[in-house]
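call fold target=OTOR protein
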Amino acid sequence: MTQRVPLVVLLLCLGLMCPLVNGIFMDKLASKKLCADDDCVYTISLARAEEDYNASDCRFINIKKGQLIYVYSKLVKEKDSEEFWAGSVYGEQYEDHMGTVGYFPSSLVSEQHVYQEANKTVPTTVRNLQKP
């Protein structure tokens, strides 16, 4: 038993110096976004999903036809990319998803009510967990 202790300590030290887990790096969707404020925390509008959408990765949210979505920011479209908005689902029947913020294609929703203009251009940021 006492021989295992130094081995465990050695493995822990090596693990701290050389992390085994690296983050997954994904392409940025856009360099800028439109918001109502500098931190993109205020609701811009309320949108209704016209079609279902299944999220392709953790940056996106699933939406169902008819679902209401609070919109917080709109990515500024670049080149041939699709236009995405960031928001969270709304409504009692979607309670388990409420508060989850993610992107969804703007082409699949219609704005129902505009609360305030998205007139602040804010740069998007990438949080690197660890550089490769």
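return ok
The mean pLDDT is 79. The first helix runs from residue 4 to 17.
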